[in-house]
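Issue 218. Parser rejects a valid record. Input:
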Amino acid sequence: MALLSSALSIEPPHELWRLVQHDYGNADGDINKANLKAAMDALYLIALVQGLLFFYRLTYVSAGRKIVKKVAEEYEFGDQAQTSVANYLRETRIGCEKDPSFANGRNLVTYAVGLMKSESSGCFLSGARILGMLLWQSTPLGQLTLIKQLLIGSSASSSHHLLQKLLRSRDWQQEAQYLLTSDSDDYYLENAYKELLLQGLLIIRKLAADENNCRVMSSTKGLLRKIMASVTSDLLHHIDHGAWSDIVEKSLKVMRHLGSCPGETGRKLRREISSNKEAISTMERILQCDKCEAELQKQAMGILTQLSMDSKSRKEFIQMLVDIFTDDNKYNTRMLAGEALAMLSFEGGIHATIILQVTGDFVGNLIKILLNAKNKTYRIRAAEILQHLCSHGTKDDECLKKLKKDMTQVMPKVLSEILPGEATQTGTAADGPSFSSPHADIEGQNGGASKDIGHHKSSFSHQKNDERNEDRKLLIAFLSLCVTICDRFISGDQDLARV
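Output the parser choked on:
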């Protein structure tokens, strides 16, 4: 083949030269050679045309490969998606050879959606792969609008059909077990199915950024159930964390995105998620599991916090958050629980009341964290939760009375943290470690920075800046707590105001 290609590339110059020279020999009146010149002209002309056509085809193939490579680089396509682009170019070329108008209105998006409408699993995967890679990038508005129109804005039956096909229903635990025990051919087939599912979840998540799309999805029967399938089946704990973490994570992200939709659409989706007891149980188990990755726990915490806003099971969830935040051994999820409690207590109303009524002395535990915890972020969260409880605890019961008593007692200790010099002079000492004021810290660091030389200077300065920022946040949280205590409990109480 290489020899043939070389010969075809050498032929055109040779044939062209012979046609120009007309050096075919002398007929010398021989009747058998009378037509030699015309025959040789025709022969060399045919050879020249053949060579030119070969050269054109070679140039066309080379240009096509460059186009495919450029498109793949532009959209950061992998090898498999790059093959799909090459197929798109080939099919477009063949179609245009038959009908020049074939390319009108045709592009990668329409090609991908067309593949997804096919009954072939391979074609569907190729189409989903292209759309997934397009949506993964910063998709131009026009392209994104076209994708939405083709997947969501078409006829109801057609759009629902495509959305359903993105997440083909299977028995997840059975499929996962099969994957672990199957031979190599089936293994690659199942991996292709997993890739299809990941691409489907990515596409749905991108489309869910639009509120109208969320409304369509909420009305697509069975779609949310399929999105939650990997969570409902609890593949992480029943099968394997490593093999299924990526799919479960993508499912949780889509669930959280849909659950954050505003209005009736969001309430409808949250009700459907809340009614799935298996999914709720799995997310709670993720929060308690040391093997689950931090991102999984973050997404599970976010979903459960959303659901607690309008769920009948909010008491159990809040109790779980309290147990996690007050447990020194919950390193991975303690920060998440503190953030969730701060948000729920800020909402006030029933949430603040439930937090005050949970089993155990939560306010007392918060005070211990506030004053004694070594982690400043935990102290900031404790201060925020206490501040919100003071602001929004409206029910005048024993819990609120205890909160008032505890807060008025702890306020001098908080002030001693803010003004350590004042506290020393007045004889009041805090139980926990104090922090220097931002101004003093900056002065100290400026002096140290002048002495610090060498390659460690930049990292040292960055670390100290982070510490100063944390000190500032803690100072603000403590000041806000003291102001709230004064406004809520002390200003209106003449006896405490005199003190």
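Fixed in the parser; the record now loads. Residues 36-75 form the longest helix (40 residues).
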